[in-house]
Amino acid sequence: MICRIGSVTRCGSAVRVQQDVGAERLVAAVRNAESSRKTAVDCKPPSPLHDRIGHVHAEMGLRTRTALAAAGRTRGDETPYDEDIERLERELSALSVEETAAKSYRQELADQREETEALREAVAATRGQLAAHREQGLDTEELECELEAKIRDLAETETSATAASQQFERARETARTNRDRREQKFKLEDRLANRRRDARRWLVDQLESEYERAVQELAEERTDPFECKPTMASLAVGKIADYDAPLVLETTPFESAGAAHDWLGGPVIWL
Amino acid sequence: MLLVVTYSQAARQSLRNVCRTHEEVVVRRFGRAALLAETEFGAFQALRLQAKHGEAVQITQTQPFNEFEAVPETVRDAATAYEDREQSAVPYTAFATGREFPTPEEMRHTEL
């Protein structure tokens, strides 16, 4: 790892950095998310485990069992569920369900119906006016033309409304078919989640005693390894994991970057 | 009421969150589905879910069912009579034969 902060460059697997640098910036630099000129960490790519324990600090939270399982994966541990998981993932990615245009058809249908209704009212109103004019013996020519034009408009709008309604019905049928596929996809998602949970449990069972030993090495007194502080759990998980990108340690019981690196067995940036 | 049915894990989770946060709008919950009150706020919550998850969220407006308006008397009578039958092993088709009740086929092809 090469860690560059401003004009200072440090190399090696155990790097100590001034606390005022800001751990967040270092974490981002490890992820390569932040290409700032001031802070850069040149290292191997972080593992998915880094999202959980990549930044060890007092306010962190940790789902210990999930992290422990992820640590097992970094070592290449396999479970009897992996084949199922892979198969389900393949099936799931092959099953795509398109969104339909149902929403725009719904809108069109509502607009057309509204317009039709407005025109119907306009036709009725013009008819009323015409009748009144006739009764009073007034000139009706203009109103007759107006009425004719409105009736024509109404007929046209009614035709469009019928078309919109048919389109909407077709979209509803497509949506119904799609929902069958979504249902299938949903079941696969659930099955995949269950298998992943099985795999996680299996990995945790395998790693539990190793993890417990690691926690006891850090703890001053006997501690429930799944109830201990997240910082302690993170370090114990880190000791089990096999990783190449550095962990950023803000809160640790170690006295130096070197000591942290020796215990963890992987690269660290120590603040 | 508004019946909201979810078709993905993420959508189901969001629906659960809505149900937990806005109990007042939820009339009934059924796992991955819920009945929301027919208010603007109920619609607002349902539409939020749809905006987030697209067609993995299905929204249906329900209406109360009145069998005396929607269903012909023969069908209503058939249901009551069949549940009152003396021999429980008789299938409906056999039960309806010779009585003035509609056949399942007839009922299947007649919409309400």
Summarize the structure.
The complex is a heterodimer of chains A (271) and B (112). Chain A has helices spanning 23-31, 50-53, 64-74, 82-94, 102-135, 141-218, 230-240, 257-264, and strands at residues 2-5, 8-11, 14-16, 39-42, 55-56, 247-249, 268-270.
How would you describe what is shown here?
The complex is a heterodimer of chains A (271) and B (112). With 271 residues, chain A is of the alpha/beta class. Chain A folds into 2 domains: 2-79 and 199-270; 102-194. Helices cover 62% and strands 8% of the residues of chain A. Chain A contains 8 helices and 7 strands. Chain A has a 4-stranded parallel sheet, sandwiched between helices. In chain A, strands 2-1-4 form a 3-stranded antiparallel sheet. In chain A, strand 1 and strand 2 (8-11) form a beta hairpin. The two termini of chain A are 16 Å apart. The mean pLDDT of chain A is 91. With 112 residues, chain B is an alpha+beta fold. Chain B has 2 domains: 2-61; 67-108, no CATH class. Chain B is 46% helix and 17% strand. Chain B has 6 helices and 4 strands, in the order βαββαβαααα. Chain B has helices spanning 9-21, 40-53, 67-70, 73-83, 92-96, 104-108, and strands at residues 2-6, 26-30, 33-36, 57-61. A 4-stranded antiparallel sheet of chain B has the order 2-3-1-4. In chain B, strand 2 (26-30) and strand 3 (33-36) form a beta hairpin. The mean pLDDT of chain B is 95. The A-B interface holds A 97, 99-100, 102, 175, 178-179, 182-183, 185-186, 189-190, 193 and B 7-9, 32, 54-56, 58.
